[in-house]
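Can't attach files on this board, so I'm pasting raw text. These are the components:
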Amino acid sequence: MPLDFRDYLAYAKKYLSLAEEAAGRREDSRWLLIPSIVLAWAAVESFVNNRCDDLSSVPQEKFDLHERAFLLERRLRFSDRGAQIGQFVFEGKEYQTQENKIFFLLSKMGARKATGLKGGDLWRRFRKFKDTRDSLLHPKRGKPADLRPQTVRKHVQTAGQLIQEISKRIWKKSVDL
Amino acid sequence: MTRVMFDEKAKKSSQAEKSASEFFDRVATLEAKHDMPIIIFQDGASGAYYTKCSLLASDAAKLCDLNAKLDVGSPEGYRANRQLFLKHLTYQRMESDAVKGREFNDIIVEYNTEYDPATPLKVWGGQHRIRAISIAYSKSNRYHGFRVYFDLGKDQRTEVALISNTNIAVSNDTFDRMIEETIFGGILRKWCQKVGFLGSNEDFPDVGSRSEKITVKRARSFVINFYLGRERGKKLKTAKLDQHVYEPYLAETGLKGGAGITPDPNYDRIMSTHDILVDSALLKAGERFLALHNAQHRAVTDPKTAVKNMKSYRNKALIESVLCGWSYVAGLLQSHPQRLNNHYRIPRTSRRIPDPLNAQEMSKYKHDKDDPTYRGLGTRSALKDRQRIAQLFLAKSLQENVLIDPRLMDRAVSQVVGLISLSEGYA
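---
Top answer:
Structure tokens for the assembled complex are below.
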């Protein structure tokens, strides 16, 4: 069975718990905290990407062309030659950020406006979580990630809360985490 | 000569008086033996006439008929009551009590000589008690209390049968079977026999979950969904078929309301506007569905295949959500012949997926939206599952030779979730 967001989040919590135990013994815990952050991020990404997949499964007539390009993460180009002259065609990849995907989902499927999320406390915490994750995956001298167990615990909680918030807005129900 | 009187709440009826007199002339009762007056009562709810009296066990054993019929005019001998549970501890206790001299009361019978006149007391309530005293009377021959109904109409008879069994819960399947017989006659049963769901003289089971046969509820659901789907499909162009979430319907067990027992309103409407016995399209749909069920059953019970021989796997097609979804799509595609042909094809199998419905993987399938307690695709009768299964078969009908694998399941379910989410959003 493929892993879903619940699995990723559960593994993130497991690593965090092991890290807290190691920290309690005054041992190095960073090697456990790093996968915890990556897995918590994967939980959010899995949830968001699969919701985009739900929309991609819907017959294409339900979306404008630029919306389909967004969902498929493809670039849209106006063709000025060949068989498709005068038409817009998909061309190459154009990756979208998690933030944009979330806003898109909320504006297409959400029962409340996407603007309500941005600027709130949860979103601020999500941005911090993202910064930590980025500094781990794209390490740079002089920009060390904050790898204290209490900080990572907050990030893991943020991942769960964001998934819950999206679920409530698009499905009108809480998911069991 | 027995003196017959009417209770003050009963409206006098010469027919009821005549029938009661005939009964007391023919059947030996404790009341007649002691020259006691006989009182005829009338049920306020149904208007049925009855009397109360006591019969000796040895007489009751000879005169009672446990194979009572709801439709006395029908030449077919389908038994209306549920089966006897002779190994049930409650029954065994009843039998041993009867041997010890237990006197039973309020056994419900109908005096009817229209069929099997040698046994004119048709038992509607207390068939286990009758059986117990029939076994025991050579050791203990006592008087037992009876309520005897006269001149029952079909509706009254059904009601007597139902109210007489409320203390030993009648299964919904038996209840449905009784209502079906009373209101619609044997049409649905004949349709099932014609398609092959039932053998030529076979009736619907008392309890579907035990028999692994099609029940009245499932057969009704099949018929209803075929017609509901057909009505919807006529209004849609082929290109638009996949842009909707469909809602296959699950027939409801008859409800008792102010106007007596009423059948499912959709079923009632369909039966009054269609002759299901001559509708070749419906018959073909039934036959194709049966072919799918048989193929699934064969694949799961074949010892050479790796699928676990579980009831829920071998009868996957008969699970309500699967049956309703399949039938709805069969109806929907009546106006779209190419896709109908694809739908009627039994799904492809492979070495890895030897059963056409891929029951094992269906039962493991779960969408992110589902709670951890969700038991998998096509395992429940809920609307959510019926919608998903309809989409699954609709997606399958896009091509000729399709394997029901997790990818197809995911595509179908994601589409349902996506469409529902869109319709609830701002777009």
